[in-house]
Amino acid sequence: AAEAYRKIRNTLRYLSMNLYDFNPTSDRVPLEKLAEVDRYILARYAEQALRVLQAYREYDYPTIFQILNGFMTVDLSAFYADVSKDCLYTFAPRSRERRSAQTAMYLMADGLTRLIAPILAFTADELWRFLPGEREESVHIGLFPQDADLAALADQALLTRWTRLIDVRDHVLAAIEPRRKDKTIGSSLEAKVALSASKDDFLLLEPRRDDLPMLFIVSQVTLEQGNGHITATVTAADGVKCERCWRIVPSVSADPPRKGICNRCEGALTEPLNS
Predict the structure, then answer these.
(1) What Cα–Cα distance (Å) separates residue 18 from each residue in 15, 109, 240, 267?
(2) Residue-wise over 120-150: b if at least 16 C-beta within 10 A, else e?
């Protein structure tokens, strides 16, 4: 029980701490303009939250705990927190990508805090005080997420696509681990992945080619259509390491103010901190 509580608390802490500069009124991105990975995690959240609401109606508290613990451990901690760190920590503060991730995190942090309140009363009330935006004095006088609002986030086609994308991700991560053990690479960001995919997988992956390094947490990905099952060949990435984002890139700046950082990070650093 202690370990499960620690995971839930730390996951909610990760969501809330990344909202320190987020104003739900001015910074929230409309659902249709969110990055696909952010729309996916919201659809997954909505799917699980609707199940939790039904379990509350049936006073089925063990199921409530199992759903929430599974979602926070697998979907949020093991997947979404992993793939969202790059845009949260290295993109410009007010970039569309970062605000998109923050929007998803805000909606989930707000909803999950309400859903855990009857079970983890003190943790929910403590978290409530750190969430941005105007809200009731205590979570215990707030309402649960509404079925209609959750249904608006649901997208079964999106869930199906991303279930397969995560299967591919798991395959790539399994291929990376031996290369880490034999010291071919250090962290996964030092890796280049060459993917060969069946026709169906290629059609799924090709439109998302630019997002694959984010999904696999590597620096470079090549993609080609093959005839059989998907295969992933992992080698050391080509180029030099950016000192800011740690990706392996073709080149970095030699100018003293930006020495050692990549073009993307240079762009992020040109955005003023204040509006």
Answers:
(1) 6, 10, 29, 21
(2) beebbeebbeebbeebeeebeebeebeeeeb
The answer to whether residues 161 and 204 touch, using CB atoms and an 8 Å cutoff, is yes
Nearest to 234 by CA among 198, 199, 182: 182
* Rounded Cα–Cα distance for residues 238 and 221 (Å): 11
Structure tokens at 126: 């403590």
Q: Distance between the two ends of the chain, CA-based, in angstroms?
A: 45
Query: Is-above-0.70 flag for pTM?
Result: yes
The two beta strands, 248-249 and 240-241, are antiparallel
Q: For residue 7, how many other CB atoms are within 10 A of its CB? A: 15
The count of residues in the chain is 275
Residue 239 near residue 249 (C-beta atoms within 8 A): yes
Burial profile 160-181: b = 16 or more Cβ within 10 angstroms, e = fewer: eebeebbebbebbbebbeebee
CA 244 – CA 185 distance, rounded (Å): 19
Q: What tens digit of pLDDT does each residue of 203-256 get?
A: 999 999 999 999 999 999 999 998 888 999 999 999 999 999 999 999 999 998
Q: What is the CA radius of gyration of the chain?
A: 20
